[in-house]
Amino acid sequence: MTSKTGVLLGRLMRNIMRSPDTIITVAITPIAMMLLFVYVFGGAIESGTDNYVNYLLPGILLMAIASGISYTAFRLFGDIKSGLMARFITMPIKRSSVLWAHVLTSLVSNALTVVVVFLVALLMGFRSSAGILEWLAVAGILGLFTLALTWLAVIPGLTAKTMEGATAFSYPLIFLPFISSAFVPTETMPKIVRVFAENQPVTSIVNAIRALLYGGSVGSEIWTALAWCVGIMIIAYFFASRVFKSKLG
């Protein structure tokens, strides 16, 4: 990370630290969903585990990240509309530093949100048999997932005409875990729904994280999860970079 990127990152992080309610707001919905499903629906859901919060947590973490990345689009849109972005690109700094500062801010802020969700899950009875290597692998997958969605968020952040348009793209991503193995095993779903659920990225990522946390057989799931994350990130980065260059010259 260049010194200029660090300065820009510091600017964005100071804004977040002055308004920590951003992180709290992002965490509220996933935590509320976790409380609802564990304490209201958990007894009626056959997940094949004794502790439903253990089964549920990986999907909740992805939901929290999908919610958090909308703020990347929000911050980018604000910088463009205020004229701050145009001012930055006239300064003697690499233009890519401007985008990377927003992306790294998303990575840090979403990591904080994930920690908050983890702490609540611990209070609800979450326990893991994972060792240090498994935890590092989980952190790596969550980091890649955050980067992939953040680069997706950059595109509407640069192209949207309104603030609502900049953030609305995240809504389908937030609810994608519902049609996956995040809440119930895919075997319980109707055939058409099951085919979609088993072949979308959230299921592979959730299954890989779940296996790492609870000592299951990871198998090919982790490679499929990594392929989804890296593939989405590369494609989103390519289009985000093109949009940035065409929009701001």
UniProtKB/TrEMBL annotation:
It is found in: Cell membrane; Membrane. It comes from the Bacteria. Residues 21-247 form the ABC transmembrane type-2 domain. Signal peptide: none annotated. One of its GO terms (cellular component) is ATP-binding cassette (ABC) transporter complex. It is a multi-pass membrane protein. InterPro entries: ABC2_TM, ABC2_TM_bact-type, ABC_2_transport, Nod_factor_ABC_transporter. Keywords: Cell membrane, Membrane, Transmembrane, Transmembrane helix, Transport. The chain crosses the membrane at residues 21-41, 53-77, 98-126, 132-154, 166-184, 222-240. One of its GO terms (molecular function) is ABC-type transporter activity. The keyword Ribosomal protein does not apply. Belongs to the ABC-2 integral membrane protein family. This is Transport permease protein. It comes from Paenibacillus apis.
